[in-house]
Structures are given as C-alpha cells and as structure tokens.
Task: structure prediction
Amino acid sequence: MIAVHARPRVGSNRKPWLSRQRRGTLLRALAVGGYVVLTVFPFYWMVITIFKANTDLYNPANNPLWFNAAPTFANVQYLFEQTRFVQWMINSMVIGVAVVAITLALAVPAGYALARLRLRGAQHLGIIIFATYLIPPTLLFIPLTRVVHTLGLQNTIWSLVVVLPTISIPFTVWLLTGFFKNVPFEIEEAALVDGATRWQAVVHVVLPISRAGLAAAGMFAFAISLQAFLYPLVFTSSTAVKPVTLGVVTDLIRGDVFFWGSLMAGALFAGLPVALLFNYFLDDFVEGITGGAIK
Amino acid sequence: MVTIAQRISAQQSYEQRPLWPRLAPYLLILPAGIYVLALIGFPLVLGIWYSLTDVTVARDGTFVGLKNFVTVTRDPTFILAVRNTLIIAVFATAAKITLSVALAFLMLQAFPGRKLMRALFVLPWTVPIALSTIAWKWMFHSQYSVVNWILLHAGVIDQNIQWLGTPVAAMFAVILVSTWRAVPFGAITVLAGLTAVPADVIDAARIDGANWWSRFISVIVPIIAPILFIAVLFDLIFTLTELTVVYLLTGGGPVDQTQVLANYALQVGVVGSQLGQGAAIAIYMLPLLLVLTVVALRNIARREGL
Result:
C-alpha cells in the first residue's frame, strides 16, 4: 500500500563519493537498530522471566538478563493449570469473532452506501460517523454501565460483544468507504449490463474485489476487541467471563503478590498473536487512518 | 474528461433503475447509524445528564444542577488529576512527535534488514497496551527492576531508583510507556506522509546547497505537516482520555501523584459508586476534546474536498 519499499535511494546514482553514502546507510541502520533494541527489550525481558525459576528471579545478586539456574516451565505450567488462562483466551476469541461479525454486518452496507450511492449529504454523514470514533470510552463507560445493566448483560462476555463494536464500527465504515470508492465503477456496471441485479453485482463482483479491504476491516475490529481494557474492566468481574487482557493482569495478582513469571507468560502468549495479526494488515490500517491526507 | 463524462451518464442510468429504490441507501446506513446512536450518542447524553444529578449505583438521581462539578473540584485529587493529565499529554505528545519524525526519517531510505526492523519496531503498538504495561511494571519493580540493574551496571546511577514510588520518576515512567507505545504508529504515519515528498524535491534542495536542517524546515515540514497535524490531534485525544497505563503501572500513585482524570473518574464513578460525580469528572474533558475533534474533522473534511 505504501510505496516506501519501492522508493529509490535519494541521489544514490548522483553522488560521486559512494563511501560517504555507505557510511550514511550504516549509521542509519545502527540508529534504527538502537531504537529497535528499546522497543524489543521488554519482550526479551518477558521471555527470560517466563522461563526463570523463582529462586533465580528473586535474587538481586543474580544477573537478571540471563539464566543463573536451569530454565523451567513451572511458570507456564502454573498459568495453564492454576489459572483460567485457556478460558480467557476462549472468551477473547468468542468476543473477537462476534465483534468482527457485528462490525462487518453493519459497516459493509453503510460503507457501500456512502461510497457508491447518490445520497444527499453522504460525505457529511461519513464524517459524522467517523467523528464518533473520536468520542473516547472514558466519556461513555459510566452511563454504559446502566445500559449494560438494563440489557441484563452485566458480568457476561456479551456485554463486551454489544459494546466493543461502538469502537470498531465508526472507523471500519470510514475504511470501507475508501475501499469501495476505489473499485472501478465500470466493473459493477458491466455486471449489470450482463443482466445481474444490483445485489448480485455487489455480492459477486464488488465484495470479492474488495476482499483486502474487508480483511483489513475485520482485522481491525478483531484487534480493537483484543486491545480493549477499560470496558472489560468495568463490565466483567468474574474470573470465568474475563477476556484474556483483563484476566492476565488482574487474576495473576493476589493481593500484594504478583506471579511475575506467569504474568509475563500470559501477557506474551496473548499479546504476540495479536501483534502478528495486526502487523499483517498494518499498511491497510495506516492508509485508512491517514486517509485523504496522503492523496 | 471523456471518461468522466461517460462515467456520470452511466451512473445516472444506473441509479434510475426501478430495482433500486431511492430509499435503499438510507436503509443500508440505518443499522450502523442506529447502533452508533444507541451506544455512543445515547450514553453521551446520559453521561451529561448523570453529571447534573446525584445518581449513584444504588438509586436514581434527581437534578442537582452543577453541584457535582463544584463538589469534585474541592477534592485536591481532582486538581492533581487535571495537572497530571495535561503534563502527560504535553510531554508525551512532544516526545512522540520528535521520536516519530526521527524514526520515520531513519526508515525512509533503504538499508539492509529494514523490513525486519519495521516488523520489530511496531511491536509496542500492536501488542495490547494492558499486557505490555504489566511488563513495564515488572521492569520498574521496587526490588528487582531490570532497568535499575542495567543503569547501575552501566554506571549511570549509583543507587536504585524507586521508579513507581517517587512522584517525578513515576510520572516519567507513565510518559515513557505511553511514548514507547505510540511512537511506532506515529513513525509509520509520518513515513506514509514522507513518501509523498518526491525524491527529486529533496534532491533539488540538496543541490542548491541547503543543509539538512533548512531542507527539513523549508521543504519537508510543509509537506508532512498536514498528516503530522492530524496524527497529533488523534494522539492528543487518546492520550488525554487514556487510563490503562496509569491504572496498571502506578494506580495513580504514589498518593495520587500520577492520578489522571480518566482514572479518577473510574475510581469515583465505578469503584466509589458515585455515578454522578464520576460522570462530572469525565465531562470536564469534553470542552477540550470537542475543540480537538472539530479541528481534526474540519481538517479531514477539507482534505476530502468537502
């Protein structure tokens, strides 16, 4: 999506002193490498912590950066056998899939209508829906407790299934409007000329062409539902109904006792898959959020 | 021109088909509209109403005017929360912009392993914030802080810092984690903007003998400014209202020294069951958010050609 990879090196074939160019490249690589050490170090520290024996971990005399005693699976074992980690992962998956389904079911028609159909004030409607993306959960969580209670959903995973699409829908409508606008109109017209109904044209022509956009939108909704923290914190309290992001950071702390090894294991095992998925759709996401600014 | 004209006439004939009633577009938008109205619009109004009543978890409220807004300001914690929210927003935003632009420039040109580097440096942004914050809490542990260990062994400090136990260090830690998390996104956004600068524009500036700083200010800043501006506004809105880092890293402590409005609203409104006062604390952020949102949307609307 972003053409950075194809961009030619600035002035690379114009400068006679190549060695200076090379030195610049090397310095740049070193600077980025240094920054990457900062971004990656917490994850390295998590991995080390996960496999350290407690006697090794809680000894200030030991080098914390490497193993001073044999690595152990005790922390991982504790996470899987003594906590509801598996249940939390399942909860998060169910919530994530349901949020994606609701988001796409509502955002695809809205995005299509805003992109394609002659609609009075379509662009303003689009901006208004997008504007709701900027209304933060902080302003909404207190009144939403009453809404969730009225619906009888308090302390269930369904409270999150209902509430989390409010974060994903506005942005997804915006994203999909952009994608549908990029589908050449002639392709749709051709299908109609061939005798297809508008519905058939959309289902068999427009949606397949836009599948990259649909995937990005669905991925975004999924990531949003897994990133959420405030709504799970407010709407779910029983161990059995927590999503993984909440369960890990609340149930592995008993009073003042932090189970650091198992905490890091839960955080890493839940966090890395989300990161990998998100990374895959990163370019689509950035293009969506920066929208018209790049055009 | 010819193709545009053809396209318009094609669209007209297409829209005039009786199969496609005029109401259809509205029907397609309606479900999303109702959802957003019911679960964002309605709670927003309900929140404003709550802030004007003495509602608690236990009972429905009656109208009390602006009493909540006055009551909450009498608590010194509120003043601390306002102060800290603004400090964090200003310092974290400044740090995020500086580092994002620097990182974007470093990533702009090719070097070996750049794709791998990008995959690695976006990690802080793609991992759920609650999970990475708990890792930072462990790194800042009062006894076993790996950050202290490294600084001690590098000779930077000569005794352990109580990162989360002293006010200034705790604020620094909150700003650090918030910045660490947001820079990848900022850098990628700026990078997207930078690719809009044609290579020969940068080249031309170089040939004219401009040094890198004047080239940066006169050629590149004007081009990336619009996208940077939107990114900053978005980030400000989310930083001002964010509570995950504070809630998990410091809990607002030590003794409310890192308390922020969002977390304070949670404590008063949900933990303390004072829905009305909690809503009032949250609503205090509304005017500033409204200004930021309107500026951001006007900017986007202009770019979309409205």
User: Anything to note?
Assistant: The two ends of chain B are 22 Å apart (CA to CA).
